[in-house]
Design goal:
The protein is mainly alpha-helical. The protein has a single domain (2-102), classed as Nucleotidyltransferases  domain 2 (Four Helix Bundle (Hemerythrin (Met), subunit A), Up-down Bundle). Helices cover 78% and strands 0% of the residues. Helix 1 (2-27) crosses helix 3 (47-64). The chain starts with a helix and ends with a helix.
Length: 103
């Protein structure tokens, strides 16, 4: 399970950093949060991206704060987390690219 916890942590961190880059590009300031849902909503991400962010945020909270009970079977979801993170990163890349074109 330790390897899975590390996987959840690093995938969440990848998505968080990407969303924060997009946030900084859009608003010219940093927001201090680990909440991917908040970041995705602030960036007007599509609903599917926000749902993916929620799953990753819950996994991250479980890893960082072990006293928080998990409501989902994270081990079962773990194979999807890499796919979810890739989708978030793809959306961020497209979003930044579109913003640069419109500047």
């Amino acid at each position: 399970m330790k390897d899975l916890k590390e996987q959840y942590f690093f995938l969440q961190q990848s998505a968080e950093k990407a969303l924060k880059v997009s946030y900084i590009k859009k608003f010219d300031k940093l927001i201090k949060t680990h909440d991917l849902v908040l970041l995705s909503k602030e960036l007007n991400a599509p609903e599917n991206i926000q749902k993916e962010c929620k799953k990753l945020t819950l996994a991250y909270q479980y890893v960082r704060y072990p006293d928080i009970p998990t409501t989902e079977n994270l081990k079962q979801e773990s194979s999807n987390f890499l796919i979810l993170t890739k989708e978030i990163l793809k959306w961020v890349k497209e979003s930044i690219s579109n913003n640069l074109k419109n500047s």
